[in-house]
Write a structure and sequence with these properties.
The structure is a homodimer. Chain A is an alpha/beta fold. The first copy, chain A, contains 28 helices and 18 strands. At the A-B interface, helix 3, helix 4, helix 19 and helix 20 of A face helix 3, helix 4, helix 19 and helix 20 of B.
Chain lengths: 711, 711
């Protein structure tokens, strides 16, 4: 199905569909204005500036026979950008998505253009660079009035961002598809807005990578950092070194065609692809395939366990540099980005110290610690990368004054480490607070700022902070659960990296996050449907209502808590209760709001709703206990079910005492707080989301009577 | 992750885990026996013979540290089949799936074998033919006793079928993973048990094809009939004729590597792949790419509409045969199966009659009708196919006495047509009753038998009926909805084609169908989650309860009813209400059972449940009406919502009159029946599933009082 954007010579085709518009504006101006403002604020990430004005642009009027018309301005005097294939593809995707929101007329109309009408004009000045560069102009302006929409941008990148904003503004109401009148001037705060995916610990197929890139584009992330090798597997096909995938991938790897496909797919969405091949540590898979470049550790198989292994490259040997030169040169042909990630993390260097030849080399060079040898290694890598036209990026550990100032330091150790490298004049990226497997809330991740308002860095040093990267390590995720760990929280970080520093309204962020979450799911991600599938699969019940209720009140413990409790390794099944619950579910806030309404507003209706909620928890017990014995994957759930019901009892009792004239009996408060405290300890590697709210309720029920001195 | 099946030299390793077993058998023998029988009957399709006996085989005992051990008998004297790679892969998949049912110990144990224990032994006599043949032995025997399981088969095909049966028998209960003791001797009734997928009208990616093959293997279907070309698109890459995909595929096609991958994937699951290239009609895509072999119709684009086009190959020209010889030869290299499907349906031949040269050719040959020219074409194709070592299969229209008796006729016209071809000595397949887009119930499809008990065919002619094929034409489905049209109904037909003729117990079929449906979904098909995703997407609500309730009481109208109502074409969006409801949902039977309980057993509890159900329908109205205005894709839903609530009112009133001593007022019965009759007319191309049950309830409420003569 080919539907090239309909191109016309000049801009004078903008016309309003006035009759249909009048129909729509029969509602009172003030309510329309309110509605417009609400529309405008659905955008995520928030634009640099957004001014709502009055009225609506009608995309497809109610009951109209003629549909949507779009003009891509070819600006003939400036090089014919309207014929840019990347822009054309982006416009085609825009039409397909508008069609879904606005009904089947958009594509049909665009395929059969009518002279003299266009609701939307897109004007782009230049196609953008052949290889997307760091700092390339991503700005755009979007002006929507009742008589037409105009999206303009200096490059195709900006135009694509503007299209995502436009799609977030469109809604279908009263039979018409409309966009509120608005003026948006937008550009990113940080130039490097990344998402890192580890495909070594658990592999992800190309289709999942592409869905991820779709999601990234929707929230204006622009760097896909692809962690392609680690101890547990080597995932990139090399033709020069075929043993990488032949013996060290378990058959799970990307062919060179697939990697090129991913690069093209990303470019088409304004996303750079930065590959990472982690050296000189985290290289067990390298050394299983090519022991001759290793420090001497005898590797016979890919590791079953995770953690820091002892398998380093022999960085004292010229053979290793020759190997790396050839390999990196091959990969440089596939990945056109200016940056190449060399990892560099967690190299303890015990293998170096244990190897007499390498120990002698260190002594000869005057190195007393492995870190110095690693710094030597990085210096040796620099000219190799430069020969292949690449700049270096690596994790914290590569930071060393011997390196030139155009390397980028990615901080997994935290803000202090980032400040330190910027202080030394290095460019940096913040990652520590954006580790998804920490299972922190969207709120916590959103508030972490690469350059906080109270930064100690001088203005010039602040400029060295290029942005940040959300990181998804995959020891504890696989295809089924990946999306539910990544989304929607990643959208909150995307806003942090794009939007102004002053954007810190948590409630508003969550409101928009819930909406963008649905759009992400509709675009093919499975963070909502994935867990639902797991509940169904775990319970063998097509409508596992009790399980859904129970799961909605739980979240996974952090990576390290799970690692400690389960000693997770590659045989750990990732389809148990902990995998079927999601981080930061809405229940935490819902309970808090309901308890607020009861305690602060004495809202009787809220009290009834809360009581109904606790009663539903009690009623879920038989189905949950039956599920717990139906699958070994739910066998650790039973104690949590018991707690769930006991907590429901506590909630109902607290509500009753709040309504009653009789005080709780002596010891009631302590007993209930003990129940809550017990529920706070980790069981089945999941935790309840609502315990602080329940504690407030219990405390209030006890206090209420104390303060008011009732009998 | 490589986990080769653990092979041992002899069979003496079968040992019971006696202690754990005793623990399990503490329940009374009679209840255990009942449970065993229930287990055994979860199998779908039903085996040829199944004898439950007493006790359970413990796969992974409760709380045990040592896990599952499996022995693949290499039978060294008979050729070392245990080392057959297809068998090894099948065993590996068995372990992965057992691991999911039984907990993470199965894979871990299999990876670290312990001497002297094995719960399951698999013995296979021969690897099977290099290219799976029609009629190849698919039988197997599965014997399970408390002391061990033994699966034996003459070929790997039978062993794979036996593994699917075993997996259906396994369950997790009281902390142990168990298989009931049973003896099964199984073999298929029909040798050709197919599923046809049209990928021309809407394309399906390779991943969807592979999921479909997984589902087919689970219910023992053995032929994937791949409809690779039609008017709307040509989906197979040809290197000799690259314009097929360059201009006539819209970029959606399978590369030769992908087609070989599908063939290998299918073979690994005991499934033959029969490609179809439909000639000499349904060839618009052919003639867009290569007009020189056409009858003269001027084709400029792929069709937007569906239906029978006018675009035939020029079957009078030698050029056409030379082209087909080269093309079929190329495809024969990719598809090793003995059969090649040449389509042949719906060739009206108007283009032949309109072309003076072809008309003259017909006259010269003495043909008065296009059908005769098509018969000539088929005769010309025969030696071409034979040269490439292929036998011919085609639709009804190829039937002609001039063809040899080893061609296969696939009947889309119906049973009479099949009987006719068998009467003439041709082999045949039944397809007409198995068209999924007819939206018939699983029951109707299951009862349609290629050789019914009352067949008029003689025994020798009956043998010519090779089996049947479920057909999925794709004018009205795409990736998101495909699975919900295909599954679980296809499993019911799979049972018809595999199991004995006498297997006609509808209630028992549905009981097992509901269970296999969950297993299919767990294996990666999305017939349950797909519609849920659509409801969420249509309503932009993560928990669209009212929508789910409403949708569960609806089903799509038939292909032709939708085609008439919507004039569907390639721009018709396939994500509306009709796409979000599924054929033959459980609600039809649930309502019937509840009404039975109320009317036949005067069951008060059932009456309360039914009343609660009707009340929930009433309460769903505001959410449904709000959804109807929120998306253009739900805009046709409003009248159905109104009917839904009105029908709920009728149900509640009927229940009230059934309980009351007062009769309904005059005209009540007629008014309610009119409401039901109105709801029977098609609206929004969906129909209610429960109207016959509601009518019975209304009639009973009116009659009750008449008969019993209450005041």
């Amino acid at each position: 199905m080919k539907l090239a954007a309909h191109a016309r010579p000049v801009r004078n085709v903008l016309q309003a569909s006035a009759a249909a518009l009048l129909l729509l504006l029969t509602s009172s101006p003030s309510s329309a204005a309110e509605r417009d403002a609400a529309h405008a604020l659905q955008v995520m990430p928030l634009p640099r500036s957004l001014e709502p004005s009055q009225g609506l642009l009608v995309i497809t009027p109610a009951g109209a026979l003629s549909g949507f018309q779009l003009l891509v301005d070819p600006l003939p005097g400036r090089g014919g950008v309207g014929t840019d294939t990347r822009l054309q593809s982006a416009v085609q995707r825009l039409l397909v998505r508008l069609d879904r929101t606005c009904g089947g007329d958009v594509l049909r109309s665009a395929a059969a253009p009518v002279a003299g009408r266009a609701q939307l004009e897109i004007a782009v000045e230049a196609p953008g660079e052949a290889v997307q560069s760091l700092g390339e102009d991503e700005s755009y302006t979007l002006e929507v009035t009742p008589s037409g929409g105009h999206l303009s941008a200096p490059t195709v990148l900006g135009a694509m961002h503007g299209m995502e904003t436009l799609l977030q503004l469109v809604s279908f109401e009263d039979g018409a598809c409309v966009v509120p009148a608005v003026t948006i001037h937008d550009a990113p705060r940080f130039a490097w807005r990344g998402f890192m995916l580890d495909v070594s610990r658990h592999f992800e197929p190309v289709s999942e990578i592409e869905h991820t890139l779709d999601g990234m584009a929707m929230v204006k992330l622009n760097v896909f950092h692809w962690h392609l090798s680690d101890d547990q597997g080597f995932r990139a096909e090399s033709r020069l070194f075929p043993r990488f995938t032949a013996v060290a991938s378990s058959g799970e790897f990307y062919t060179q065609e697939q990697m090129r496909e991913v690069v093209a797919y990303a470019r088409a969405r304004g996303i750079r692809v930065v590959p990472e091949f982690d050296v000189p540590g985290h290289t067990t898979s390298w050394l299983l395939a090519y022991p001759e470049i290793g420090a001497g550790e005898h590797i016979t198989t890919l590791p079953v366990t995770f953690g820091i292994p002892q398998a380093e490259l022999d960085v004292s040997s010229e053979k290793t540099y020759k190997f790396l030169d050839a390999f990196l040169g091959e990969m440089a042909q596939i990945f056109p980005d200016a940056y190449f990630h060399i990892g560099g993390d967690e190299t303890e260097g015990k293998g170096w110290l244990d190897n007499p030849r390498i120990a002698a080399f260190m002594k000869q060079k005057g190195f007393s610690k492995p870190a110095e040898l690693q710094a030597y290694f990085n210096q040796r890598l620099l000219p190799i990368l430069a020969r292949h036209h690449k700049k270096m990026i690596g994790w914290d550990e590569i930071l060393n004054p011997a390196l030139p100032k155009d390397v980028v330091i990615q901080s997994w150790r935290g803000e202090a480490s980032l400040v330190q490298s910027a202080g030394q004049g290095y460019q940096g990226l913040l990652s520590a607070p954006y580790y998804l497997d920490g299972q922190k809330t969207a709120e916590e991740m959103f508030l972490a700022d690469p350059v906080p308002a109270d930064t100690t860095l001088a203005a010039a040093q602040q400029k060295l902070i290029l942005g940040g990267e959300v990181c998804m390590w995959s020891e504890q995720v696989h295809s089924v659960t990946l999306d539910s760990r990544v989304w929607p929280r990643t959208a909150a970080v995307a806003e942090r990296l794009w939007s102004p520093q002053a954007d810190r309204d948590i409630a508003d962020m969550y409101r928009r996050l819930r909406r963008v979450s649905l759009s992400l799911e509709a675009a093919g991600l499975t963070h909502i449907s994935g867990p639902q599938q797991l509940w169904r699969d775990l319970t063998r019940n097509p409508h596992p209502e009790a399980m859904e209720l129970f799961a909605s009140m739980l979240e996974p413990v952090s990576f390290s808590d799970r690692y400690q409790a389960q000693k997770t390794d590659r045989f750990t099944s990732l389809d148990r209760l902990v995998d079927a619950v999601v981080p930061d579910p809405p229940s935490r806030q819902e309970l808090a709001r309901e308890v607020d309404a009861v305690l602060l507003s004495r809202d009787q209706e809220a009290a009834r709703r809360l009581a109904a909620r606790f009663t539903a928890w009690q009623h879920s017990e038989p189905e949950l206990l039956s599920a717990a014995v139906s699958s070994p994957r739910l066998s650790d759930m039973r104690p949590r079910v018991h707690q769930f019901v006991t907590l429901a009892d506590a909630g109902l009792e607290a509500l009753a005492y709040l309504q009653s004239s009789a005080p709780p009996p002596p010891g009631w408060r302590a007993a209930k707080l003990a129940v809550i405290a017990e529920a706070e300890t980790p069981v089945a590697v999941v935790r309840f989301t609502f315990l602080p709210s329940l504690r407030r309720l219990v405390e209030a029920a006890a206090k209420d009577h104390q303060q008011e001195g009732r009998p």
